[in-house]
Every structure is written in C-alpha cells, then in structure tokens.
Amino acid sequence: MPETLRALVARAWHGFLAYLLKFGVVGLIGFVIDVALFNALRLGVFGADTWAQTAIGAKTVSTSVAIVFNWLGNRYWTFRRHRRRHVIREFAEYLLVSLGGMAISLACLWISHHLLGFTSLLADNISSNVVGLGLGTAFRFLLYRYWVYGHHRSDGLSNLARVEEAQRALFEEPPLEPGPAGSSPAQSPEPRNQGG
Q1: Global confidence as pTM
Q2: Alpha carbon separation from 177 to 105, 169, 189 (Å, rounded)
Q3: What is the DSSP string of 87-149?
Q4: Rounded to an integer, what distance in angstroms lies between the CA atom of residue 65 and that of residue 17?
Q5: Which among 26, 70, 106, 130 is most buried, taking Cβ atoms within 10 Å?
Q6: Distance CA 151, CA 155 (A)
Q7: Tens-digit pLDDT profile for the chain (196 aa)?
Q8: Distance of alpha carbon 97 from its chain centroid, rounded?
C-alpha cells in the first residue's frame, strides 16, 4: 500500500471511522434496549390500557431509557477523550440532540401509524425501528461528533489537555543539556581562588 494511501486510511480511521464503529456498538446495544422495551410496553407486559402501551407512549419511554444508556456509553467509551468537564451541560446538549433523533423516529411512526393507517406491530417496528432509527442515527452521530463532543469545545478534556501541554511548554524551564558523553550536565566553571 503506498505511503500516502496508508496515511489517508490512518487519518480516516482516527478521525472518523473509529468513532463511527464505537458509536455503532453503543447504538446497537441501545437499539436492543429500545426495541425490547418498546415491544414489551406495546404487548402490555408492564400493564394494559395505559399511555405507555400506546405506540407513541411506548416509543417515548423506550427511547428515553435508551438515550440515558447511550449517553453513558458514548461519554465513557466512544468519545471518552473528548468528553466534557461540565457534565450537566454535556448531558443537556446530548439530550437535545437525542430528542431531535427521537422526534425523527416518532414522526416516522406517527406518519405510518396515524396518517397512513399501518397499525400492526410489524408496521410500527418498521416505521420507528428501521426507517426512523436510520434517519435519527445519522442525525445524532453527526451532531454528537461535531457539536456535543467536538474538538473545538473549550471544556472538552482533549482540548484542556492540549492547553495544559502548551502551558507546560511555554512556562517550564527546558531540561539541562547533557555534557560530553559520560559526564554530568554542563556546569558553570567555579571561580579560581586568586591570592590577594
């Protein structure tokens, strides 16, 4: 593989693809939580004839639980180097983006279930957990990567580490240069005692 191609692949991996893979793993686990809880609620496992058993109610509850799981997974694994020092602000922004992704999924479900009249459990799963999830995932990944955990965030841990490294480089004394081989670092000559 030519060196430029190797460098390009390495840059793509470290800059985007590694995040995408980790985001996918966290998202897959969150997806399992979301789908399992959605179907359990729709089937009345936690009680019948409640708002949580309706299509919109079940999706709202299941996605909310998955959002919290995904935030923890993305904060402490996917974007751990870029997580933010201000946890509450990070979670608020993460929640805002997640709610945007959930709104996309709910809109797909609402259109399918209420507007088009596809009311079966299978249709609800396809509209919310296939179409809505795909569109919502693309939306969330881009905003998490480049806004919530973006390199430009002043309170991001990776940015703070770069600032600290730059401050050390600017304000700490450079190490002493070693003298000739086998000797200690160069020292200033001691003044000779001159008789007087």
Answers
A1: 0.61
A2: 62, 16, 16
A3: HHHHHHHHHHHHHHHHHHHHHHHHIIIIIS---SHHHHHHIIIIIIHHHHHHHHHHHIIIIIT
A4: 26
A5: 70
A6: 10
A7: 577 777 776 676 666 788 888 989 999 999 899 999 999 999 999 888 899 889 889 988 998 899 899 999 988 998 888 778 888 988 999 999 988 998 998 899 999 999 999 999 899 889 988 999 899 989 988 898 888 887 776 766 665 565 556 556 666 655 566 655 555 554 545 555 555 4
A8: 11
